[in-house]
Amino acid sequence: MASLVDKTVVGAAPGLRGLPFTLALIAIAAVIFAIGRWYNNSYAFFMAYVVAQYIVLGTAWNILGGYTGYVNFGVTAFFAIGAYSTVVLHKLVPALPLPVMIVVGAVLAGLVGIGTGYLTLRLRGVFFSIATLALAVVVQTLITNWDFVGGARGAYVLRPRVAPLIGGEYVQYLFLLMLGMCVIVLATARAIERSALGYGFAAIRDDEAAAEASGVPTLRLKLIATGLSGGFMGMAGAPLPFYVTYLDPASGFSLNYAVNAIAMPLIGGTGSWLGPVIGAVLVGGLQEYLRVTISSAVNVLVAGVLMVAFVILAPQGIVGLFQKRKR
Amino acid sequence: MTALLQVSGLSKRFGGFVALDGIDLEVQPGERLGLIGPNGSGKSTLVNCICGTLHNETGSVRFADEALDGLTAHQRTRRGLARSFQLPRPFASLSLAENVRIPILYSVNARAGGHLHGAAIDERCLELLGMVGLAAKARQMPRDLTQIEMRKLELARAMAADPKLLISDEAMAGLSHAEVDEIIALLIRLNEQGVTVIMIEHIMRAVMEFSQRLAVLVAGKKIADGPPKDIVRDPEVVKAYLGE
């Protein structure tokens, strides 16, 4: 029988192994960055930063929402925790390198993720989602009333003129860091998909009682998912103060982040790491194009309409459409 | 010989309703026990308390010389206590092979010395599906299955955890005569391989054919326990089923 076992029959997915895949991601990121340096247009960097940020946010959301089946509406809470941890660190230790701030933001948001998970994961379905929405409101209220980080007035963060290490404009450095985060997040997401962890997440998504009966430690896995997802969202938010240079609660907790972070994986496809990437590039690119050509307010509408259309017409997203055709 | 499963003084209430009232039950290693009782008598609640899905207020469950009280459902599964669900609950987004893969990854591989890797897992998945006659459909999704195939997948998934005790919760409800025979044969085959089986069932023909011993639950109490032939003649049992 052993010789008859075809690997693809039983599930083990084909394709590159973990390390070569990560190296390929790094190579792609390097090529993208090299093209940017050659093109040397600061608007292009500002735009590409946003798309890369949404790749990270969308993938982070997908780890909990797509893989594990828990829909998180509180994206902005984790994102803003990352952003405001940078504001705090910048005030306390201005000389601290940005990558360190990013790590701190990720750890803080990850811990809040685990804490939230512990308190709310006994809630299922829509009740969990409402609780995460409440979390976003609570965190926003706390930040708005915290004078140290500027409260409702907002906080200014002066962006250095020149990028450290690589030279050139500072936004190039921000983009490079965000590209690095894309590599980390995508490599993690794909590793999860192919590991026992990914199967455990899928079992929880499909039927929690049956998962428990199969030996899956559902609570522990859900805490891993909320911790990773929240941590990655905080990581994506940490460089934000340097990007916008002025951060106030209204913009840090903007609905755009939450809508986009949910819409992009849904449009691209929640079943695979590639989905959020396709969604972020497509929707993020389209939004930026419309923002420049039509109006800056139209971008949320785009995400909303596309999300509704995809949920109704192609619930498996763009990746799902292609997989169906292949079968 | 010490019992494999030992339930003593187990009670469970839902608000003011007493679902189980001081249940004592022992199952010996290798035994085939039939658990019967009218609808609402507490059979599934008992299974849920034994498996850790529900928590009993009083009494205790011992399994393989270890108290299970306070352990979660997945910890009990890892200790060798598997169950199938009354209504099939497959992992709908996973293929059949992946469905049986989950207990291998999370129960078998969680035990000391039980590690399967790569091709060995794939092989075991096909072997389990082959045992219930579903190997040819390994790549298909649960939604493509018929009702009896769904029940078989449910049993295959329970067996994937490599249990010492299998609790089959009404695996035959709604199946045809021939299909019932098929499931009975399957359960007996598993038993011959050394798995202790508790069968919960309404279909008396199946229960009589399968069980070496019968336990009867009525309104949360165990009213009879013994050889099937005697049990069905027990006046208490007859009264519970047919009235006076």
Question: What does the model show?
Answer:
- The complex is a heterodimer of chains A (327) and B (244).
- Chain A is mostly helical and 327 residues long.
- Chain A has a domain at 51-254.
- Chain A contains 16 helices and 2 strands.
- The longest helix of chain A has 26 residues, at 42-67.
- Mean pLDDT of chain A is 89; it is low at 1-12.
- Chain B is of the alpha/beta class and 244 residues long.
- Chain B has one domain: Rossmann fold (3-Layer(aba) Sandwich).
- Chain B contains 9 helices and 10 strands.
- Chain B has helices spanning 43-51, 73-78, 96-108, 118-131, 147-160, 177-192, 204-210, 228-231, 235-242, and strands at 5-14, 17-27, 32-36, 58-63, 66-67, 81-84, 165-169, 196-200, 213-218, 221-226.
- In chain B, a hairpin with a 2-residue loop joins strand 4 (58-63) and strand 5.
- Chain B is globular, with a radius of gyration of 18 Å.
- The relative contact order of chain B is 0.18.
- The model of chain B has no long low-confidence stretch (mean pLDDT 91).
- The chains are: A mainly alpha (327), B alpha/beta (244).
- N- to C-terminal separation of chain B? 39 Å
- The stretches of 5 or more residues of chain A where confidence is low (pLDDT under 50) are 1-12
Report helical residue fraction of chain B: 25-40%
- Global outline of chain A: globular
Instruction: Characterize the biggest β-sheet of chain A.
Output: 2 strands, antiparallel
The protein's oligomeric status is heterodimer
Strand order of the largest sheet of chain A: 1-2
Biggest sheet features of chain B: 6 strands, mixed
Overall structural class of chain A, as computed from helix and strand content, comes to mainly alpha
Determine and state the CATH class of chain B. Answer: Alpha Beta
Strand segment tally of chain A: 2
Structural class of chain B: alpha/beta
Weakly predicted, low-confidence segments of chain B: none
Radius of gyration of chain B: 18 Å
Any idea what the radius of gyration of chain A is?
20 Å
SSE string of chain A, helix = H, strand = E? Answer: HHHHHHEHHHHHEHHHHH
Q: Biggest chain pair contact, residues each?
A: A-B, 28 and 43 residues
